Amino acid sequence: MSNLTKLVPVPAGINMGANGTRNSLMLATFGNPRGWYDQTCREVTHPQMRTRMVTDDVGPFRATGFDKAVASLTAVMRDIKAEQRAVYDVLGNAGMLCCRNVRGSTTAISNHSWGTAIDLTVDGVLDARGNGKVQVGLTLIAPIFNRHLWYWGAGFPTEDGMHFEVSKQLLESWEGSNANTMPDNELVTGDRGEKVAVLQRRLNALGESLEVDGIFGTGTRAAVVAFQAANGLKADGVVGPKTWAKLGV
Ligand SMILES: [Zn+2]
Predict the structure, then answer these.
(1) Which DSSP symbol is given to 192?
(2) Alpha carbon distance 17, 125 (integer Å)
């Protein structure tokens, strides 16, 4: 095992100015890459999205993904080569375009489905998800990804150190801010992040027994609908200002 695959805690100050992209934002911006998902990598069936997928040499390897994401990744890799040559020399591609759900979820669509996320190996080793630790090599290149407005999956409630994705801010620089997206204070199925974990903890405090994984899936939605129905709210599974207020968060 090389020094670059040694595991260390997730460093502080990651993902400065870069937020993950919500399913609602991706769907409003590009549409749905395909009609259904499971845990297997499946192909894009959406005709417009299919035309946006390219395969190119990004530096240390070839990658297939959304055209602008592949171009941005090439720029990231150019900087990694100049600034972190030892990591560059052992970086591998563990998958970019791949239409599937988020690991362990039956409702949250992975951003790999739009070809805007990539998983990396360091010296042929995949960083294990959810143990709160990341490979040293990843910590050395994360600031470079951050500078190019890529979001590092080490910041997900369920840490995913090998995963980097196009941030909301980078997406908006390409496509403009999309008026159709859900407001930031509303949570819906498919969302993930610390706010979802806050929701799950609060529902658990009220008697549910949800896994606090920060992923708004079927179980979380059912708990929200039950809470709304029991509290005279519209039972639509959307956590907006009224539901947050009743939850006392
Ligand atoms: Zn990934």
Answers:
(1) B
(2) 29
* Inter-helix orientation angle 168-175/23-30, to 10°: 20
Same domain, yes or no, for 39 and 115?
yes
> Ligand 1 centre and the CA of 233: distance in Å?
36
Domain boundary among 127, 142, 175: 175
H or E element that contains 228? helix 218-230
Indicate the residue among 175, 206, 234 that finishes a domain. Answer: 175
Q: Are residues 79 and 170 in the same domain?
A: yes
- Kindly state whether residues 94 and 65 are assigned to the same domain: yes
Tell me which amino acid residue 119 is: D
CA–centroid distance, residue 241 to ligand 1 (Å): 31
* Ligand 1 centre distance from Cα of residue 156 (Å): 11
pTM of the model: 0.83
User: Ramachandran region of residue 185, left (φ > 0), alpha (ψ -120 to 50) or beta?
Assistant: alpha
Mind listing the pLDDT tens digit for each residue in 145-165?
A: 999 999 999 999 889 999 999
Q: How many domains does the chain have?
A: 2
Distance of CA 177 to the CA centre of its chain: 18
Beta strand extents in the chain (DSSP E only): 7-9, 53-57, 62-66, 91-93, 117-122, 125-126, 133-135, 150-152, 163-166
